[in-house]
């Protein structure tokens, strides 16, 4: 990695401000999923064991630049203490600052001792955070000696805590989670083990066409599923009933198909489909195969068994697998089979490096019970997409070069 890592820093007795992603699901002060806190524990542990004075900052939700009680980070303190004590087997000294800048935050950061942790209040309680205001960034920088960004999920945002702060500190480094994300995703784009199979799903082609376009320069095979497949099939002249399509994107799909052919990349679309009479768990369903027109009143909500077999064959031969986006409406039981099957086939290929990104795909591997068999599950939805598009992430570009 061309950027400094936390491993490259001298941390002992220094105040280390770590930008984390603690944007966890929180209702009535109760955390329903602490995955994002757990994901950054290795970085926190590394800093604490190297005798750093650890200051954590994060956003939570979208409070629109003003304090919102339900989006306070205060309820996270108890969980953080518990995890530091039980998972890391360290003393659970975690204090909480009721603001992320200002006199109280400054004084609390000064009083920190080595091996102690301070969690700051929600960054987005200040409009200056998302505006990347230099004065606000300078206030954050004044709390620390060195800065570490471990929030890959926010690295595509040029905010004060991800980009602005780096202009006011001596050293800015990647945390262990950030480093892991960049190493796995970077290898996919630069030197993947081959065959490299990318599985792209989800509802719309418009959100992922840049990813598809970039992957057509990198991958050996693209497997397209989900709602976006029907825009591709429309581009090939197939009538797809009431299935979701983006009529204004058929030319984009056609261009992708032409590029795949010119590049010698195998781009596979569903060859059969689970059709339904309505978007509901109690819908009447049928399997439809072939390239003829769908029944006019029916919509496709999942890939069919022949497509699962077709995709499974490609996945089994792969040595690098990238998956972003479900194969159907997997939230509804009748249409979850395709996505669950793909999750199981990806997990079953133990010889491949498998990388899963995007909220729905991540949920799918957990739902299928195979998350522990995936090589890397990305924590950044929008960030991983932009990275795979080949875009520069402001929060990464701003870090100090090695």
- What low-confidence regions span 5 or more consecutive residues with pLDDT below 50? none
Rg, nearest Å: 23 Å
N- and C-termini, Cα separation: 8 Å
Largest sheet: 6 strands, parallel
Instruction: Give the number of helices.
Output: 15
Strand order of the largest sheet: 5-6-4-1-7-8
- Determine the structural class based on helices, strands and strand pairing: alpha/beta
Number of strands: 17
Shape: elongated
In percent, how helical is the residue content? 25-40%
What portion of residues belong to β-strands? 15-25%
Mean pLDDT: 95
Describe the protein in words.
The protein has 402 residues and is an alpha/beta fold. The radius of gyration is 23 Å and the shape is elongated. The protein is 34% helix and 17% strand. It starts with 14 loop residues before the first strand and ends in a 5-residue tail after the last helix. It contains 15 helices and 17 strands.
Pick out its properties.
single chain, 402 residues, alpha/beta, six-stranded parallel beta sheet
How does the SSE layout of this entry go?
Elements: E1 15-19, E2 26-27, E3 30-31, H1 35-39, H2 41-49, E4 53-57, H3 76-86, E5 94-97, H4 103-111, E6 117-120, H5 127-130, H6 134-141, E7 146-149, E8 172-174, H7 176-190, E9 196-200, H8 209-215, E10 221-224, H9 229-235, H10 250-263, E11 266-268, E12 272-276, E13 285-289, E14 299-303, H11 305-317, E15 320-324, H12 337-348, E16 353-357, H13 359-367, E17 376-377, H14 381-388, H15 394-397
């Amino acid at each position: 990695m061309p950027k400094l890592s936390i491993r490259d820093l001298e941390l002992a007795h220094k105040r280390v401000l770590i930008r984390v992603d603690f944007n966890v699901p929180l209702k009535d002060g109760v955390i329903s999923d602490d995955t994002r806190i757990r994901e950054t524990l290795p970085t926190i542990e590394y800093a604490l064991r190297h005798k750093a004075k650890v200051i954590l900052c994060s956003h939570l939700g979208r409070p629109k630049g003003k304090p919102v009680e339900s989006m306070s980070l205060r309820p996270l303190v108890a969980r953080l203490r518990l995890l530091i004590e039980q998972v890391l087997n360290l003393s659970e000294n975690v204090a909480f600052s009721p603001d992320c800048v200002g006199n109280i935050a400054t004084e609390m950061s000064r009083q920190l001792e080595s091996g102690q942790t301070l969690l700051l209040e929600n960054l987005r309680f200040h409009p200056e955070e998302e505006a990347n205001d230099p004065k606000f960034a300078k206030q954050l920088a004044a709390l620390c000696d060195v800065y570490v960004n471990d929030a890959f999920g926010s690295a595509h945002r040029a905010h004060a805590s991800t980009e602005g702060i780096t202009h006011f500190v001596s050293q800015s480094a990647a945390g262990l989670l950030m480093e892991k994300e960049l190493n796995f995703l970077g290898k996919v784009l630069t030197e993947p083990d081959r065959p490299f199979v990318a599985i792209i799903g989800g509802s719309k082609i418009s959100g992922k066409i840049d990813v598809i376009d970039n992957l057509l320069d990198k991958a050996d095979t693209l497997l397209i599923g989900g709602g976006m497949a029907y825009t591709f099939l429309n581009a090939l002249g197939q009538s797809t009933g009431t299935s979701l399509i983006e009529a204004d994107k058929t030319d984009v799909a056609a261009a992708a198909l032409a590029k795949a052919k010119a590049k010698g990349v195998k781009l596979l679309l569903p060859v059969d489909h689970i059709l339904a009479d309505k978007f509901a768990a109690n819908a009447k369903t049928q399997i439809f195969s072939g390239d003829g027109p769908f029944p006019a009143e029916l919509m496709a909500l999942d890939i069919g068994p022949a497509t699962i077999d077709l995709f499974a064959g490609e996945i089994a031969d792969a040595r690098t697998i990238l998956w972003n986006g479900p194969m159907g409406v997997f939230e509804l039981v009748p249409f979850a089979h395709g996505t669950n099957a793909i999750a199981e086939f990806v997990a079953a290929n133990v010889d491949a490096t498998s990388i899963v990104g995007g909220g729905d795909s991540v949920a799918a591997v957990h739902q299928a019970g195979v998350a522990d068999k995936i090589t890397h599950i990305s924590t950044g939805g929008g960030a991983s997409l932009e990275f795979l598009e080949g875009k520069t992430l402001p929060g990464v570009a701003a870090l100090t070069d090695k």
